């Protein structure tokens, strides 16, 4: 918990152990944390030097003379109030993160400006199972807003279990995760089970009769397309496409296939193209729908309902998927026809 502020696990153990005690010696804390007494004493001296703890005897100031006179393990320590001691560390880490973000933005822009004039800056070729899997995880773990995926046939370089882990991480970050799967993808071993779990976890899934390629697009800024292996004994390979006209075309391809694909829903026995009874709109989603039909904007609806704008947009998208429509106008017509309101 405190490692982000520069405290290692032993330091954090000593620090948190002091939270429940008005004062304690190195010997006391060693017994409580299971650390060696000498190590506990060394950690306390280090925390005192950083102002996180203070000697509870004498002047209360962790001066070296007082510590020597007290003897190893004899001095008793108390916490400096966390609001006072930890605040500078938090500010320091925030400043460091801000500098890192600034450097990241500058380096990214510099790379784009340099690479924009070369074909290698637009498309790079990745060869080998490990390299393809590594770049795939980079794209998924680096996504902050959107992930678009085409699923076709059996996975070659990235096992399904690794894909599931990346999906969970992206969904936990609030990434909008949309997937179009070709019918032949469900021929694979346990594919239906894996896809059902993904849908239940928050992935938006649609199915198409066929797709022209496998693909993953991250934040509309990078895409990865596996290459067909003409040599049966050859290594898996893929191209990574950066911002360019080619990337724009891939995004348009995904949106086109998404619009034409059929939504899939979870059912008690697996997946289906018709919504199950439990896939009716929730009360929370109907609240959002009522506000939209009243002409209230997403932002204002979010404010009135005490939600984030992204949550409102996500609920609207789910309503559209349940209705099988592509516009909010169609959603209103479908809601009236189905008696949702």
Would you write up a description of this structure?
The protein contains 14 helices and 13 strands. With 341 residues, the chain is of the alpha+beta class. The protein has three domains: 3-84, Arc Repressor Mutant, subunit A; 120-276, 2-Layer Sandwich (Endonuclease, Chain A); 280-338, Arc Repressor Mutant, subunit A, CATH 1.10.10. The strands form three sheets. It has an eight-stranded mixed beta sheet, sandwiched between helices. Strand 6, helix 9 (191-201) and strand 7 (204-208) form a beta-alpha-beta unit.
SSE diagram, text form:
Layout (H helix, E strand, L loop, with lengths): L8 H11 L4 E2 H8 L3 H13 L3 E3 L8 H7 L5 E4 L2 H34 L3 H4 E5 L1 H14 L3 E6 L8 H13 L3 E7 L8 H11 L2 E5 L6 E4 L3 E6 L9 E6 L2 H16 L1 E2 L1 E3 L2 E3 L10 H11 L4 H8 L3 H15 L4 H11 L3
Parallel strand pairs: 5-6, 6-7
Antiparallel strand pairs: 1-3, 2-3, 4-10, 5-8, 7-11, 8-9, 9-10, 12-13
Based on helices, strands and strand pairing, what is the structural class? alpha+beta
- Annotated CATH topology of the largest domain: Endonuclease, Chain A
The radius of gyration is: 28 Å
- Terminal CA distance reads 46 Å
**CATH class placement of the largest domain:** Alpha Beta
* Beta-strand fraction estimate: 15-25%
Strand order of the largest sheet: 4-10-9-8-5-6-7-11
CATH superfamily of the largest domain: Endonuclease Chain A
What is the N-to-C succession of helices and strands?
Answer: HEHHEHEHHEHEHEHEEEEHEEEHHHH
Mean residue pLDDT: 78
- As residue ranges, the low-confidence spans are 58-70
Tally of structural domains:
3
Number of helical runs? 14
From the coordinates shown, what is the CATH architecture of the largest domain? 2-Layer Sandwich
Largest sheet: 8 strands, mixed
